[in-house]
Amino acid sequence: MSTTPFSDEYEYIIVGQGIAGTVLAHAFLERKKNILVIDDPNYSSSSKVAPGLFNPVVFKRLTKSWMIDELLPASENFYTQLEHTLGEIFFYKKELAKLFSNEEEKIFWKKKSEEGSLQHYLSNKIEEVFCPDIIHNNCGAAFVKKAGYIDVKKMLAFSQEYLQKKNLYLQDRFNFSLLQINSKNVNYKNIRANKIIFCEGFRATENPFFDWLKFKLTKGEVLTIQLREEDSKKIPDKVINKGVFILPIGNNLYRVGATHSWDNLSEAPTAEGKNELLEKLNHVLKIPYTIIAHEAGVRPAVHDRRPLIGLHPSHNTLGIFNGLGTKGVMLAPYFANHFADVLEGKKLLNKEVDILRFWK
To answer: Which of 95, 132, 270, 274 is 20 to 30 A away from residue 219, measured at CA?
Structure first.
């Protein structure tokens, strides 16, 4: 099934409507660019499974996440504007409660929370007792500020609807054999564009033009659980983290995740993934719960944990915006606008994300 685009001439074709493709499309539209998004919604995608959690710190070392001082303001501005454009709410700020496993973790947290660079993100207040009737926790908890989540499924669904209403969306499984390229434009099924940007997630490994990029795909599995209403009322409206995250999404529902597997890259949920999550969850929750859903997706992670952005070194009409990995909701807004600036000749591409770092 496909829809008929309103014209046969575009500035940009975007292939893929996951987090990367959707955010890039809206960034282009904000700049009044004429675009067409090509997507097959029947394809599975890690974006459709992603909890959309954003956390400004790396727990292992209690350091700031890469570029977080730039990424967070860009994300908040972008998603707030997009909510206005779509007429829907999907951007939620929620503190993150980090449960301590031992006294050493607590002492380390207190020390790091006093560092100037982390004071914006780490609360120096320790709660010695945190939800004792609900949660297994003998060492207390502390809180990460400026965390939260994007309801990714909602954002993607309403963005697709928005694009369809404007005749900017073509439902189609992209066929590389039908793509014609030259130095000035590309042509796909008689649709011409100045450039085509691939935002295919992990399927970029099958893209014949970008098969030299060094992806390190990881499979992630998540659960959705439901608590009894009386129990849910006893838990603060915060993300809870200890081995797994427990993310409240309303109606007594919680997302629980996530696993990381580099070996089994099938797109189907596994018993092993489910058991891993349940074992960790049962070390946190004391109360009963009901499993509502079990989902899996393959993340387009990269060997050096940096996005993959840029134009093909041999074909300047082909580009890629990918490799956002587990932090896609944070990375996408800043780098979509950065890439748009680069394409308009306003900036040079950040070398850390430039795909040329992997060119032979």
So the answer is: 95
| pLDDT tens profile 167-206 | 999 999 999 999 999 999 999 999 999 999 999 999 999 9
Are the beta carbons of 145 and 120 closer than 8 angstroms? yes
Instruction: Tell me which amino acid residue 120 is.
Output: H
**Spacing of C-alpha 343 from chain mean position:** 23
Which has the closest alpha carbon to 315: 269, 345, 359? Answer: 359
Task: Give the model confidence (pLDDT) of 289-341 as tens digits.
Answer: 999 999 999 999 999 999 999 999 999 999 999 999 989 999 999 999 999 99
pTM of the model: 0.95
Of the candidates 25, 9, 28, 27, which has an alpha carbon nearest to the alpha carbon of residue 17? 25
Pairing of strands 318-322, 191-198: parallel
Instruction: Return phi, psi of residue 290, to 5°.
Output: -120, 130
Cα–Cα distance for residue pair 255/151, rounded to 1 Å: 11
DSSP string for 198-235:
E--GGGGGG-TTSTTS-B--EEEEEEEEE--HHHHTTS
Phi and psi, residue 320, nearest 5°: -140, 145
Q: Are 283 and 242 in contact (CB under 8 A)?
A: yes
Phi, psi values for residue 228, rounded to 5°: -65, 145
Fill in the amino acid letter for 155. Answer: M
d(CA 309, CA 324): 10
Instruction: Tally Cβ neighbours within 10 Å of residue 134.
Output: 18
Strands (E) across the chain are located at 9-15, 35-39, 53-54, 57-58, 63-64, 91-93, 96-99, 141-144, 148-150, 169-171, 179-181, 186-188, 191-198, 218-226, 239-242, 244-250, 253-257, 290-299, 308-311, 318-322
Please give the structure tokens belonging to residue 180. 């014609």
- Give the residue ranges of DSSP H helices in 123-185: 152-165
